[in-house]
Amino acid sequence: MDKALRTAATGMRAQQLHVDTIANNLANVNTTGFKKNKVEFQDLLYQTIRPAGAATAEGTEAPTELQVGCGAKPVATTRMFTQGDVVATGNSLDLAIEGDGFFQVRMSDGTNAYTRDGSFKLSRDGRIVNSDGYYLEPEITLPQETQSIMVSRDGRISVMVAGSTEAQEIGQIELARFINPSGLKSIGRNLLQVTPASGEPIIGNPDLEGFGGLAQGYLESSNVDVVEEMVNMIVAQRAYEINSKTIKTADDMMSLVNSLKR
Amino acid sequence: MLRGMQYTANGLENKARVMEIIANNLANVSSAGFKRSAVFSESLQNSEVSPQTESTPIELIDFAQGRLQETGNKLDLAIEGPGFFTVQTEQGLRYTRQGHFVLNPEGLLATANGDLVLGQSGPISVALDSSIAEDGSIHSNDGVVDKLAIVQVTDSGQLRRAGNGYFQAVDDRALTDSDASVRIRTGFLEESNVDALEEMANMIDVYRQFEANQKALRAQDETLEKAVNQVGRG
Questions:
Q1: What domain range includes position B6?
Q2: B89, B34: one domain
């Protein structure tokens, strides 16, 4: 009976993580380029009480075995890379990716991180950086006296410089794609890192060979759907409650056993 | 009298076992690809010597289809119809309905536990342009490269649980290749087939049976007490 108690406890722990994940999704409902998380669960190991082929009281062989499981465990949290809504901001350095791909930014330790958050800024020396000041990779420096910036759908950046009537092309934004983007590791600040599970990045130009196109003056909002998360929260809460009922019932049964001996 | 108590105690033990199985079903209400355990009690035996022989609950795995939930993830696969993915683990071949797959460091398709998912010609390597068709065949730019090894069992009693979402074949001869009725849905996961409502009803049922057995045991105890302490006192 205390096995039922422990089994229900694993179920409650799993549902707790479920609620934790939903809470994080809901907290990021307005985070630019945020991708929602989902938890996957699995059953735990089984204890064989009576193996198949064991002799029964009637002298026959049991055709099936009696296995009792030990509960559930969370096995993975997966990021869901569905497209978020694209929202107009009018800012010329706000870029949204419509389709597959990630912007690459260079971290201070020299490695690259990947993000769908396209709210770029200019650094003091005219280079394009993300909100945390990490350089966009490949690096693009805007000439001084730049008056306006144009980013085409395929990632070419051209600028209008004061005193000139012709736009001049100064760089090309490259995107990265992964075979298994759900394998990327979140490091916070809207950034993702390569892991063995995600595979090596495949670099290419936007709007070509399966890469998404860029939209200038737009940002991709979070793909968290509040209604869906609320429904998930109800489901998780009820599942939590059900497991607590199991504990209560198992406890009541033990109390019955206890009261056998007066 | 003492034999009667023994039977009742046996009943209590069995009900407790059933409760453990229901607890496991309920704990796995959110486990993708989980199949619930259905419990039956062996029919009571009637004979002149013993009104009831020792009975143990019979557990069967209920392989009913779970609902498909859309995830939009390219490596989430759900099986519609009977059938199991074949997985290579350190302990040997295992079968699963849990289709939440990832890439391992070598670029091969693996389960969330890191075990390789097998195709007709061994482990499956997945590239950026790979796609999986409804019949389980894996397409790349060069055409069909492999096909998922989906197996079916002729007798579902030939599968036992191995934990971690896996099943194990008791006898490999019970396994056959899948027929055309099996469809693979990409971007979907099969939900657990546990129905919380049904399990709660079962739990109430087993609790009351347990209670009844407990009452019966107490009644016998009280009768026995009378026999021991009051009979023959005059």
A1: 2-63+194-225
A2: no
Question: Helices in A28-83 by DSSP H: which ranges?
Answer: none
Q: What is the ipTM of this complex?
A: 0.76
Among the partner residues A68, A256, A260, nearest to B24 by beta-carbon distance = A68
pLDDT at A162: 84
> CA-to-CA distance for B97 and B80, rounded, in angstroms?
10
Q: Is the domain of B174 the same as that of B205?
A: no
Q: Which residues of A touch B170 (CB under 8 A)?
A: 52
Q: How far apart are CA A92 and CA A105, in angstroms?
A: 18
pTM of the model: 0.82
**Residues A104 and A136 sit within 8 Å (Cβ to Cβ):** yes
Best CA proximity match to B151, nearest among B173, B129, B132: B173
pLDDT tens digits, one per residue of B54-63: 567 788 899 9
Tell me whether residues A52 and B196 touch, CB distance under 8 A: no
Beta-ladder partners of B50: none
SS3 call for B84: strand
In a domain, B125, yes or no: yes
Q: Give yes or no for a contact between A181 and B72, defined as CB atoms under 8 angstroms apart.
A: no
Residue B232, pLDDT score: 77
Mean pLDDT of chain B: 86
Residue B83 falls within a domain, yes or no?
A: yes
